[in-house]
Amino acid sequence: MLYFAYGSNLNHFQMKRRCKDSIYLKKINLKDFRLTFRSRYRAADIEPKKNSIVQGGLFKISKSDEKKLDLYEDYPTLYTKHYFYYYGKKVMTYMMVDKSPFMFPTERYLNIVKKGYKDCDINKNYLKKGLLEF
Q: What is the pLDDT of residues 48-77, one digit of tens each?
């Protein structure tokens, strides 16, 4: 299965620890969505926004990896699954259920995400935009 990461799971070390079978494929764009941070966890989330892009990492994961991710992402309580197609292939990602107001992430969490951006060679401007409250 294909999985789109846009927050702390971009961090290759963390992703491998969570999902031992995961294979990073490449960075891709999710169109008409924007990155934000919210909830009491101050974690990354995406939400629809016309003419906006979320850059993230495309991973190949196993069924057991998906089950582990479901636990980590507190699915279906905190996050729900969102599916989209990338060049005809179905891709799964997570979106927060409760669209609470923007909350700036903790420094620790933000550093994990920043390392993930580096691991996936994603332009940090996408992260900077997500850290601005609209």
A: 999 999 999 999 999 999 999 999 999 999
Strands 43-60 and 23-38: antiparallel
Q: Looking at domain 2-127, which of 3.10.490.10, 3.30.565.10, 3.30.10.20, 3.40.50.880 is its CATH number?
A: 3.10.490.10
Sheet order of strands, 43-60 included: 23-38, 43-60, 2-5, 89-96, 79-86
Is the CB of residue 23 less than 8 Å from the CB of residue 84? no
Q: What are the sequence ranges of the domains in the chain?
A: 2-127
* Predicted TM-score (pTM) of this structure: 0.97
Q: Residue 134 pLDDT > 90, yes or no?
A: no
